[in-house]
UniProtKB/TrEMBL annotation:
Signal peptide: none annotated. It comes from Pseudohoeflea coraliihabitans. Its cofactor is Zn(2+). Binds 1 zinc ion. The gene is ribD. Its EC number is 3.5.4.26, 1.1.1.193. CDD domains: Riboflavin_deaminase-reductase. Converts 2,5-diamino-6-(ribosylamino)-4(3h)-pyrimidinone 5'-phosphate into 5-amino-6-(ribosylamino)-2,4(1h,3h)-pyrimidinedione 5'-phosphate. In the N-terminal section; belongs to the cytidine and deoxycytidylate deaminase family. One of its GO terms (molecular function) is diaminohydroxyphosphoribosylaminopyrimidine deaminase activity. Residues 9-135 form the CMP/dCMP-type deaminase domain. It catalyses: 5-amino-6-(5-phospho-D-ribitylamino)uracil + NADP(+) = 5-amino-6-(5-phospho-D-ribosylamino)uracil + NADPH + H(+); 2,5-diamino-6-hydroxy-4-(5-phosphoribosylamino)-pyrimidine + H2O + H(+) = 5-amino-6-(5-phospho-D-ribosylamino)uracil + NH4(+). This is Riboflavin biosynthesis protein RibD. Pathway: Cofactor biosynthesis; riboflavin biosynthesis; 5-amino-6-(D-ribitylamino)uracil from GTP: step 3/4; Cofactor biosynthesis; riboflavin biosynthesis; 5-amino-6-(D-ribitylamino)uracil from GTP: step 2/4. Keywords: Hydrolase, Metal-binding, Multifunctional enzyme, NADP, Oxidoreductase, Riboflavin biosynthesis, Zinc.
Length: 376
């Protein structure tokens, strides 16, 4: 794209496409974020995409070299749209910023900046020193929303936490002593499974594990292999070895956060089934959540999807560890479905704390979804 000024409308259009492409491998790129690159060039009849790439499964190769390889010699003089600042540090392969320079790219349009101290402006600096035109921050908020796990891990040294609550119209999450009560319908439930597929870890407490005996897998056709690691907060080791979680531990990873000693009751049988134990510290009768999130982030994990009951949800809210809220509200009152002592949700959309800003509202059949994002 030579001899023409930047088109902000065009830039936003291609960046939006790159952001959508990056979602392809979300939750499957290990410690690296899922990033996308589009190479665009005008050969005289309007701009066309000549190369595309998204971070490969496991995190390598990065998006830029894949897009450059597809474009070949056509990359010279092209514009590259990158959803995250190109890396600037040397490993076994050259930095992506250097690869863009070597390919002769004329212009780079970036979305989110990379807070990694090995990058953090250096990628763009490499490009500018080589005479490449750089425009930063195009749809940066949109890209950062999808990269929130990686960005949170880099800036806060912990996992990014999404808390999902399913509520009845009267603000209840269930009934005591009755096990799981279906509140939302099939369309809303499928959306939740999509959220699971994009997460590194899904978390519940031992109370929910005992009451509901959930599988916590992604059961959408074609996405079964994208089930996240299942993590149970279970300091007293109450999880039943005959549960769905334990029985499937060798197929889908099951981690148990506990301070129980190696010879604790049930630990050997759970370990024999394939469960992995995460050492956690007890604090005032509960597991220390901030330290747990830091330890998990140190493993290169980035996103945590909390689907626990009211007690676990309240613990994350009280610790101010929730970054994103997703409220699924059914149209009916729980009292109209069944009788019993209701479990009151820690919040509803009318009582969301002021530190969360509304992000999106959608309807999935009769059920309403409201998402909120923490204001940093």
């Amino acid at each position: 794209m030579t001899g023409r000024p930047p088109s902000s409308d065009l830039d936003r259009r291609y960046m939006a496409a790159a952001i959508r492409l990056a979602r392809l491998n979300e939750g499957r790129t290990g410690a690296n974020p899922s990033v996308a690159t589009l190479l665009v060039r005008d050969f005289g009849q309007g701009p066309v995409i000549i190369g595309s790439g998204v971070t490969a499964l496991g995190g390598r190769p990065h998006a830029e070299p894949q897009a450059l390889a597809e474009a070949g010699e056509r990359a010279r003089g092209a514009t590259a749209y990158v959803t995250l600042e190109p890396c600037a540090h040397h490993g076994r392969t050259a930095p992506c910023a250097d690869a863009l320079v070597s390919a002769g790219v004329a212009r780079v349009v970036g979305a989110a900046g990379d807070p990694d101290p090995r990058v953090c402006g250096r990628g763009y600096e490499i490009l500018r020193r080589a005479g490449i035109e750089v425009e930063e921050g195009v749809l940066a908020d949109n890209a950062a929303r999808d990269l929130a796990g990686y960005l949170t891990r880099r800036t806060k040294n912990r996992l990014h936490v999404t808390l999902k609550l399913a509520l009845s119209a009267d603000g209840l999450m269930g009934l005591r002593g009755t096990g799981q009560v279906a509140l939302t319908g099939e369309i809303a439930n499928r959306q939740v499974h999509l959220m699971r597929a994009a997460s590194d870890i899904i978390l519940i407490g031992s109370g929910t594990a005992l009451a509901d005996d959930p599988a916590l897998t992604c059961r959408l056709p074609g996405l079964e292999d994208r089930s996240p690691i299942r993590l149970v907060l279970d300091d007293a080791l109450r999880l039943d070895p005959a549960s769905q979680l334990a029985a499937s531990a060798r197929r889908t990873p099951l981690w148990i956060a506990s301070s129980a000693p190696p010879d604790a009751d049930k630990r050997p049988s759970l370990a024999a089934l394939g469960a992995e134990f995460i050492a956690a510290e007890p604090l005032e009768g509960k597991l220390a959540l901030p330290e747990l999130l830091e330890d998990l982030a140190a493993r290169g994990l980035s996103t945590l999807f909390v689907e626990g009951g009211a007690a676990v949800a309240r613990s994350f809210l009280d610790e101010d560890l929730v970054d994103r809220l997703v409220l699924m509200t059914a149209p009916q009152k729980l009292a109209d479905i069944a009788a019993g002592e209701g479990i009151v949700a820690p919040l509803t959309r009318e009582s969301v704390p002021a530190r969360f800003k509304p992000l999106r509202t959608a309807w999935y059949g009769p059920d309403r979804m409201d998402s909120f994002e923490r204001q940093n």
